[in-house]
Amino acid sequence: MTANASLINTVTIISLSATAVYLGLSVFLGFYLGRRKSQTEKWITTWLVFDALIHFTFEGPFVLLSLYGTIKESDHFTASLWKEYAQADKRWGVADPTIVSLEILTVFLDGPLCVILIYAILKNKFYRHYVQLVLCVCELYGGWMTFCPEWLTKSENLDTSNALYLWIYLVFFNGVWVVIPLYLMWHSWVEMKRCMTTLAVTDGGHGTEVTETTTVTTTTSRHKYNTRTRPKKED
């Protein structure tokens, strides 16, 4: 694709429109599911819904089509979206082994982890931040292994002459899966630090309060028991 080629075509509009619809649906579901959660948790749930939708419905078909052929040769309607992206990164059109391997990991590990994490957030499960960290590491690893080999080989498969392909397809859409996982890792760090600090204070500074409360309750109970009216003994 040359620099003066048309930036917008029918597939471009369909691809960006589908992404916008997914985003709107994710906001609705995220805020509905997290309606009893804080604002931060609502947005995190929104991201996870969007992430799961992309992994299962966009990248899932890519894996299947690439395992039994190539995107470039496929006539499946979802292949047209990937053919558009392959204009920016040729590897996605020819079933590149590294790309397909990473996408298998993304679909069959990252996708389910998104669902598990949503459940953990909504139900306040103890493993929430463990899953959140694992998911973020997987996302970051996928991004690194997608582009690092290209950087080492002078990016021969990337087309950066087109502003749409460079800034929207390559930078923006891939950058989102770097910035948000990094934020979520920081979020988990803050929450785990807060929990550990609270636990340390409880154990070290206020642990006696529980004992005192128990003692008072027991004493009060005994007092009530001892002050009951007893029948008088007959002479």
Secondary structure topology:
Elements: H1 10-33, H2 39-67, H3 79-86, H4 97-122, H5 128-152, H6 163-204, H7 207-226
List keywords for this structure.
mainly alpha; 7 helices; 74% helix
Task: Describe the model.
It is a single chain. The termini are far apart. The chain is an all-alpha fold.
Please state the oligomeric state of the protein chains shown: single chain
Instruction: Return residue spans where pLDDT drops below 50 for at least 5 consecutive residues.
Output: 207-227
Give Rg in angstroms. Answer: 28 Å
- First and last CA, distance: 115 Å
General form: elongated
- The total count of strands amounts to 0
Beta-strand fraction estimate: under 5%
Averaged pLDDT: 87
Order of helices and strands: HHHHHHH
Helical fraction: over 70%
Q: Please tally the helical runs, counting DSSP H or I stretches of 4 or more residues.
A: 7
Structural class: mainly alpha
Task: Write a brief caption for the model.
This protein is mainly α. Helices cover 74% and strands 0% of the residues. The model is unreliable at 207-227 (pLDDT under 50).
